Amino acid sequence: MIVADVSEAAEVHGVHGTEGLTYWKCLARRTGTDGSWEAVEWASLPPGAVSGEHLHTRTEEIYFVLTGEGELLLDGEPHAVGPGSMALTRTGSTHGLRNTGAERLDWLVVEMSTPHTHAVLTGARRSDRENAMPRSTVHLLREDTVVDPSVSFDGPLRTIRTLALDEGESLALAADGTEHVLFVLAGEGTAAGSGTEVALAAGSALTLPLGGEVEVIGGPGRLRLFHAVMAVAPAVGEVTAA
């Protein structure tokens, strides 16, 4: 398992061509995983700051707002966003984010390559299914909410959800044909896997690569989690059980 947190974030100036400051931390990359993850990241905008509007030409991307208030531009349409707001930006869409509140706006970013990525890199024509896909969408995730990413995405992401574990309650995950990303929204807990136990707290991220297993246990207070699941095809030549 790959564990990281949002401490020691970098200062980024002029993100996506706009003036101002953004704080940013990479929590996981595609290195060390078998799935189509590009990156899992945390970002933060001070009051009044902007993450500039930009076009997604080859990847699908989740924006999940953690704290603060803002305005999301999605394909030119403004959306008021706050904690629990989630945007699914598919290839060919534009998005940007502005902090309109008095406090910091923090959000989680999960970016994935898709079947369209290959088409972009090789100049191949988009499939009829891709052309018929719904456009990017905005959702509100409260506790124990599940979203099917196929409402906007064409890639291998299968589930996005939020959940909570009371103290002593556990969640067992096995990356059998899947990979998992967890991000702690609030509370404390532990994660045990591969002979290692690590502490979890708000701002912790855990990525479970193919073949891994982990048990997440709630600690004092309610452990609230963001959870994304991606299907992963077996490697070429790999034999699977009948």
What is the structural class? Answer: mainly beta
Strand fraction: over 45%
The pLDDT mean sits at 87
Determine and state the CATH class of the largest domain. Mainly Beta
Tell me about the biggest sheet? Answer: 7 strands, antiparallel
What CATH calls the topology of the largest domain is Jelly Rolls
What report would you give on this structure?
- The chain is 5% helix and 55% strand.
- It is mostly beta strands and 242 residues long.
- It has two domains: 7-142, Sandwich (Jelly Rolls), CATH 2.60.120; 160-231, Jelly Rolls, CATH 2.60.120.10.
- The strands form four sheets. The chain has a seven-stranded antiparallel beta sheet. A six-stranded antiparallel beta sheet has the order 1-19-16-21-14-13, with no helix packed on it.
- It is globular and about 45 Å long.
- The model is unreliable at 236-242 (pLDDT under 50).
Write the layout of secondary structure elements.
Layout: E1 2-5, E2 10-13, E3 21-29, E4 37-45, E5 50-55, E6 59-67, E7 70-74, E8 77-81, E9 85-89, E10 94-99, E11 105-113, H1 115-122, H2 128-132, E12 137-140, E13 146-147, E14 157-165, E15 170-174, E16 178-186, E17 188-193, E18 196-201, E19 204-208, E20 213-218, E21 223-231
